Amino acid sequence: MSLILKNVRPMAGAATDVKIENGKIAGFGQNLTGDTTEDGKGAILLPGLVEAHTHLDKTLLGMPWYKNEVGPRLIDKIDNEREMKSVLGIDSRRQSARQIVQSVSKGSTHIRSHVDVDTVHGLKGVEGVLASRDEYADIVTMDFVAFPQSGMLGRPGTVELMEEALKMGVECVGGIDPSSIERDPRLHIDTVFALADRYGKMVDIHLHEPAELGAFSMELIIERTAALGMKGKVTVSHAFCLGLSDDAYVGRMIEGLAENDIAIVTTGPAGRPCPPVKRLRDAGVTVAAGTDGMRDTWGPYGNADMLERAMLVGLRNNFRRDDELDIAMEVVTYGGAKLMMLDGYGLKVGDKADLVVVAGETIAEAIVNRAPRALVFKHGKVVARDGACLKAAP
Amino acid sequence: MSLILKNVRPMAGAATDVKIENGKIAGFGQNLTGDTTEDGKGAILLPGLVEAHTHLDKTLLGMPWYKNEVGPRLIDKIDNEREMKSVLGIDSRRQSARQIVQSVSKGSTHIRSHVDVDTVHGLKGVEGVLASRDEYADIVTMDFVAFPQSGMLGRPGTVELMEEALKMGVECVGGIDPSSIERDPRLHIDTVFALADRYGKMVDIHLHEPAELGAFSMELIIERTAALGMKGKVTVSHAFCLGLSDDAYVGRMIEGLAENDIAIVTTGPAGRPCPPVKRLRDAGVTVAAGTDGMRDTWGPYGNADMLERAMLVGLRNNFRRDDELDIAMEVVTYGGAKLMMLDGYGLKVGDKADLVVVAGETIAEAIVNRAPRALVFKHGKVVARDGACLKAAP
User: Fold this and answer.
1) Where does the Amidohydrolase domain lie (chains A, B) (predicted)?
2) The pLDDT of residue B67 is above 90
3) Which residue among A255, A294, B129, B171 is least crowded, i.e. fewest CB within 10 A of its CB?
4) How many CB pairs under 8 A join A and B?
């Protein structure tokens, strides 16, 4: 079976037809022949969007509105969520399925999700997302991070659960603020990296610690990555410390990230210092973006639209020029693909036909208008059309 | 003619019907009788959204995509825009009409727009928006600010043009960074307030100056407001200086704003320090929000959706709780109404029937979901339905 996607403009360039065969891009041009056709109507063709940081197991999507009255501290939110999982019945399998369907409807073809692992709920979160991965393998590619949301060192048994999650097929070892939550930065970082090294996994650490405190954690992460030769396999999410006002210190961190091919994931947070995307990219650091938690007990925002995320990253980084908006688009496509170590991602002949078609004259316009995705392809097949996913959510 | 709007939930409260007669809210309850009905389908009823800071005369909406390659300095953007107005043919009447129609489709029933006044384009901008005000008076209420975008003191003739604009019916005297652009803070502020005093107009000053520099300008504004007894008639837009890290200094400014009933307008800017909305409101200061420039030569963002603006204000202020999102909604409704000195604004019997109906369970959900506006009423009549304005744009 082959399909001709007619009249699309790859990366907002010149119009062409695209031949899709065996789940791959088989060619570009006019007068291509195939078994079926789809009309791109002159819209922009992008590689599938990459959601590089979310929490599929904890969204409240499709559940009754949760009235947020949670206290101001981080620990208030963590404790509240652990409790609400039982009280509200936040089922990881059902909820992850709902968010997957919404993500695909918005053009994401790849998702990295953190999944809570703790001594109260054990591996239920992991089991749920693994089941959803199987069920939705035809419409999205995912990898997972075993995430010690409630802390690891202070809750005996957590490390063992994380180890179990890795054996079950989770791809990455997660970590959380080594000092401000874990109270023992050296031991936390060593434990995370030891797990990754033993099981041959990637690392993706939530680092919210601000300024010099976060920068110290970042140094430890860079040192361990270098010592274990884990170049290209480590990601730091949030990394607010890269928004430090000490320009020279930020420069030294960026150098360490570039040398060790450590990726940064940002949400483009409006209310906090955050990684300078253009500077990181100019230094050769991989930058990706994510929705983070979406409509959960932490907060009500988010719709899993990675074009909206590109807008938020753009607003946060004061991107106004078209060439700057191109960077925001790169972050929600190639940046995420690099971090997830995806093979055959892109718009070249032979690349996997994971694609999005969206109306717009330019890349910048696609980001600022965010038209409903006309077509989304996964494994060469149409999986969403006119903003709606063709596969149902529970 | 009377209309019964059935089954809506004012401010996301209990469901009721609403009688609308003679352009006003005539009553709430069941079993109301009227000439026609509209079905609210259980959606939320809000007073019309208030766009409190935009630039109707300079949007590129509906024009070919403008490739932004503008330089990084403020003066680059100002000079470029003045030139592009001629090169691209940015017609104030046509462009303001386009944005008005989009605003109304998103539920705005009131707009304050700044309008450029300078020695190159003279009063063309003002003439255009005044014509649009007449043409669209049936769907939106507007007031205008004569805005010296290119500077006032350094360009002889500008003050006279602003004076002319006020005589033509513009409601507010605008100002711009008194030190960083005008180079003479005392003279700039004195000139702005003298014009307002002489013609009995309001004041709305663009104040981008950061930190202590902006705080000094803010002090001058507070002093002049007090000296001239202009309580309730002065607005400071952007006011990044209120995001100063010197907590006590910010507190003194806020006290001055509250005492003199000076309003603050914010866009919820992601990339800059900005006014702390909750703190201002707790101190009794009126806070409103605006889109600012929308798809213009300054930048590509913006869609005139004041619910999206509420989201951005919420994200910027780290509003997560439902009671915090209520504040964000207040900012895009009652805050703007107060600043524009609107009479009869609200959801009480006797208030003007300028209303929005939008799907959602709670106020917070209305903001984070931003469903297409089901119905928008102006002067008691439906002016937009299912996200589309019933009056055409040029």
Assistant:
1) 38-383
2) yes
3) A255
4) 87
Instruction: List the CATH number of the domain containing A43.
Output: 2.30.40.10
pLDDT reported for residue B18: 98
Per residue in B81-120, pLDDT (tens digit) is 999 999 999 999 999 999 999 999 999 999 999 999 999 9
Do B41 and B59 reside in the same domain of the chain? Answer: no
Chain B from 313 to 372: CB within 8 A of any A CB: 314-318, 320-323, 325, 361-362, 364-365, 367-369
Task: Enumerate the residues of chain B whose CB falls inside 8 A of the CB of residue A318.
Answer: 271
Nearest-neighbour CA in chain B from A99: distance (Å): 14
Q: Which helix (H) or strand (E) holds B21?
A: strand B16-21
Partnered with residue B237 across adjacent β-strands are B206, B265
Number of domains chain B is built from: 2
**By the CB < 8 Å criterion, does B47 face chain A?**
no
Spatial contact of B42 and B351, defined as CB atoms under 8 Å apart: no
Using a CB–CB cutoff of 8 Å, tell me whether A312 touches chain B.
yes
A125/A131 Cα distance (integer angstroms): 10
In the numeric block, which tokens belong to residue A203? 């690392």
Smallest Cα distance from A128 to chain B, Å: 26
For A143, the token pair is 């990898």
Task: Give me the domain span that covers residue A154.
Answer: 49-339
Regarding whether A295 and A253 lie in a shared domain, the answer is: yes
Please enumerate in sequence order all residues whose Cβ is within 8 A of that of A169, keeping only pairs 6 or more positions apart, or say none.
A130, A144
B301 — contact with chain A (CB < 8 Å)? yes
- Chain A residues in contact with B368 (beta carbon < 8 A): 295, 300-303
Whole-number Cα distances in Å, B325 to A232, B337, B358: 40, 18, 16
Q: Which residues, at least 6 apart from B322, have a Cβ–Cβ distance to it below 8 Å?
A: A67, A68, A69, A300, B362, B363, B364
Give the per-residue pLDDT at B293: 97
ipTM of this complex prediction, to 2 decimal places: 0.93
Check whether residue B291 and residue B357 sit in a common domain. no
Residue B1 has pLDDT above 90, yes or no: no
**Which residues of B fall within a CB distance of 8 Å from A65?**
361-362, 364-365
Q: What is the mean pLDDT of residues A191-209?
A: 98
- The number of angstroms, rounded, from the C-alpha of A237 to the middle of its chain's C-alpha atoms is 9
For residues A226 and A372, membership in a common domain is answered with: no
The residues that bridge with A118 in the sheet, in sequence order, are A122
Q: Is the pLDDT of residue A1 over 90?
A: no
Amino acid at B361: E
Work out the pLDDT band at A394, boundaries 50, 70, 90. very high
What tens digit of pLDDT does each residue of A261-296 get? 999 999 999 989 999 999 999 999 999 999 999 999
The type of residue at B132 is S
- Interchain CB distance below 8 Å, A68 and B321: yes
Taking the CA atoms of residue A374, residue A376, residue A381 and residue A385 in that order, the dihedral angle to the nearest 10 degrees is -40
pLDDT of the residue at B361: 97
Q: To the nearest whole angstrom, how far is the Cα of A311 from the nearest Cα of chain B?
A: 8
> Dihedral through CA A5, CA A6, CA A7, CA A13, nearest 10?
40
Is A72 in CB contact (< 8 Å) with chain B? no
Using a CB-CB distance cutoff of 8 angstroms, which residues of chain A are in contact with residue B321?
A: 68-70
